[in-house]
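Below is a filled-in request sheet from our internal design queue. Each sheet records the structural input a requester submitted and the sequence that came back. We keep these sheets so that new team members can see what a complete request looks like end to end.

REQUESTER: design group, bay 2
PRIORITY: normal
MODE: inverse folding
CHAIN LENGTH: 126
BACKBONE (tokenized):
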């Protein structure tokens, strides 16, 4: 969904409530556009952080925006907020797989050690 709210005091905030007509499975809201941290348009999670973002409910979500801040895709405190949003369902991570040793040639091997954080470290031994 995309929309614009105008007529705000520059730098002001607004709260918008979106109700679903049908029940949908979702557990987050994503926004598309630039952010104060990353000026390149991108998808990012738009959950409430104490100042702005989406508060989730079974019947919809409540969105809080600050003119010129996160969720306002012109990033200017100009009295208007323009946004693109989508409710989403995060796909749970798949099973954690590990590969102990794989042979890649005579005397060479690659060892992959999964760490507790879920990241991977790759070592190449010759």
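RETURNED SEQUENCE:
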């Amino acid at each position: 969904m995309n929309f614009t709210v105008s007529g705000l005091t520059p730098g002001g905030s607004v709260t918008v409530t979106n109700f679903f007509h049908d029940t949908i499975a979702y557990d987050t809201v994503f926004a598309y556009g630039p952010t104060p941290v990353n000026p390149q348009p991108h998808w990012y999670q738009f959950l409430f952080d104490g100042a702005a973002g989406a508060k989730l409910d079974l019947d919809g979500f409540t969105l809080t925006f600050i003119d010129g801040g996160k969720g306002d895709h012109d990033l200017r405190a100009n009295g208007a907020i323009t946004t693109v949003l989508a409710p989403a369902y995060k796909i749970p991570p798949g099973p954690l797989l590990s590969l102990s040793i794989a042979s890649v040639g005579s005397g060479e091997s690659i060892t992959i050690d999964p760490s507790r954080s879920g990241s991977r470290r790759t070592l190449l031994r010759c």
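SHEET NOTES:
- The beta strands are 2-6, 13-19, 28-33, 42-45, 53-57, 60-66, 80-88, 101-105, 108-114, 120-125.
- The CA atoms of residues 5 and 81 lie 5 Å apart.
FILED BY: M.R.
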